[in-house]
Every structure is written in structure tokens, then in C-alpha cells.
Amino acid sequence: MMPFWISLTAFSLLLGGSYANAASSVNLNVTGTITPSACNPHLSNGGVYDLGKIQAKDLNIDQPTELRAQSLRLELACEALTLVALKPRDNRPNTHFDSGNNIKFGLGLINGNEKVGSMLLRLPSIMADGTEMFAIGSVGQTSWSPTDILSPTFLTSFTPDRGIPNMAPAPIQRLSADVLITPRIAPANTLTLTEEVPIDGSATLEINYL
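User: That's the sequence. What structure does it adopt?
Assistant: C-alpha cells below.
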């Protein structure tokens, strides 16, 4: 809302001199933090889960088909103890078929509008610096709550405390976690399957320094 307010005010001042006491200047501030340490992420198998070929005849006609879940190993190595969170991005936005459920990631489109399916990313096991950790999520970094998923709709960080009030991220230096990928295909009667089509899920796990 701030850019709109500034331009509206500037436009008003150009129209006339009836506002003799109006301010003649406005401040623009640039804020941020330079962090002394950086973290490097790594996913096992190059971050790829290959489902192979799936026969169309094996898909459920009028309900989703759950596919085999697979884990990839996520490693974070930081130069020093660092407060971090993961900020997932769905590289196939608006393609998950679960209506109203935007915590999942899409698997691409057929014919430009048929949603192939969705995948859910979970964190069933997390260790950092020799301590068991638990995932916590936040939309705006002001309030954190327990979660076990990675989602494009919120940040996910880590804490050694479980089930306590006022949960907050803890600094980590080396973290290892299982990322459990659970894909499923939309009902076959919603898809055109007359020729081979790709399953095209893609997500980016961006490190966000807190």
C-alpha cells in the first residue's frame, strides 16, 4: 500500500496550493542485514525422483492414484551457527489438482489446462548438530507453529523444542533431514491420455536467513 499512497499524495500536491501545510518531502528507507555466514544446501540423487513409466490403465478412473513415496536426503552446511528457514517455491504454480489445497506442489499440465497431479513434501526426520529437531512454519516470521511439511505458502524452520508455547527457530550449523515426496495423479477421467505425457513436478528450496 505504501507505493500507492506516495504516488497519490504527490499527485494531489500537483493539483493545487490549498494544502499550504502539507509536507514537502518523504523518506525512502532501505533496510536489511548482511550475514557473516552462509549455508550451502544439497539434495541426494541430484534432487531427482524419477517415477519411471506409469501405465494409464493402472490409474484410478474417478479418484486420485497414490504413487509410491520416496525420500531424498537434504543437507544444510553453514559456516557458523545460523538462523535459517526454507522458503519453498513451486516451479509449476497453479497446476496442483487438489482444489483449495495450496500446500502441495503441482505436477504440470496436459493440453495447457488439465492438471496432472500434485506432490506433498514432508519432513519426517530432522537432525542438526547432533540434536533431534522439529519443523516449524510461519507465514510472516512473527509466529511459528509445528508442522511436518514443506509448502510454497509458508517458511519452514527448525527447533529442538516440541509442543511448547512461543516456539522459535534455533540456529543450526549442520542439518540433515529426510524429505519424503508423496506424489499422486489426478483421476484418469480428468486427463487426456491418448499419448505419452510427462509428469513434470519441480520445486526450489531457497534458504532464507532470519
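Residues 36-209 form a domain with the Immunoglobulin-like fold (CATH 2.60.40.1090).
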